[in-house]
């Protein structure tokens, strides 16, 4: 009997199943066809929402923290840690999902809560903080993040600025003394999957402001405020990083992390695969099954499924994907290193049913994958080894 090893490294199916739940369902289906198979789960995320859950499933410990939500109200969030390494998920504290009543606040929403979580991680003894950014509700240039870590943004009268992007137009000076003291000996790494600059037609406000509820006029105002903020930071640091790829991520949090925290920006999926020990689990693996809610053009630009496929492909391991819906053609899948895609809608055309009860469908997809992609003893595929 052939020893079979399968690794399921899927992102969450947003709004339905966590990455770990996806793996459990697929694994049940695989073992129905190949009961001798060993199926291991490596939950993954790309730095956006779901990052904390994936890290906990990979062995990190959740440390609960109450922090400021995007409009200032307290929210129950936290960071995860393993030894001196912490992971903070911006989406869980400063994200759109934290807006009270889902009411946008494009001009006043703040990233302060994210900074409070980073501060809590540092104060607990963590010396490396991985900050996953994505899904933010704010366009404040990361000013809230900086203030929560000890920086001060002052107006012309020496008073502290109000929260939010619109208030940045009044910034006159920046005091980073306390921030530098807090960050001494701390490494900040940002998980970032967009390459937008801070300002301009491809910047944070122009590209993402509308998604956060900003009107065309407000987008112009926010871009002007971010431009002024970048001028203040450039004067203080003698470096102008507003046009750096990724500076516009999360409403400008990427910019603040680069310019004022000395952060390194890395693709989110690469970081999360490192943390999950994915590469170490590939030895002797026959098949990797990745997945996410939708395979589409965004998948091809650094999302979790493409990152998993690239890593497994580099190790010579075939990769297939499960998803809710698939909008990629076979050529696009092959270019991403994915041999085949199996969608819930292949089994159940009604998308509402797929969303309401995806686990049985994933079990069915696991059966199909096992039948079509796992070698049978004595078969030509198995004999090639």
From TrEMBL:
<keyword id="KW-0808">Transferase</keyword>
<dbReference type="InterPro" id="IPR036129">
    <property type="entry name" value="Glycerate_kinase_sf"/>
</dbReference>
<dbReference type="Pfam" id="PF02595">
    <property type="entry name" value="Gly_kinase"/>
</dbReference>
<dbReference type="InterPro" id="IPR018197">
    <property type="entry name" value="Glycerate_kinase_RE-like"/>
</dbReference>
<comment type="similarity">
    <text>Belongs to the glycerate kinase type-1 family.</text>
</comment>
<dbReference type="GO" id="GO:0016301">
    <property type="term" value="F:kinase activity"/>
</dbReference>
<keyword id="KW-0418">Kinase</keyword>
<dbReference type="InterPro" id="IPR004381">
    <property type="entry name" value="Glycerate_kinase"/>
</dbReference>
<dbReference type="InterPro" id="IPR018193">
    <property type="entry name" value="Glyc_kinase_flavodox-like_fold"/>
</dbReference>
<protein>
    <submittedName>
        <fullName>Glycerate kinase</fullName>
    </submittedName>
</protein>
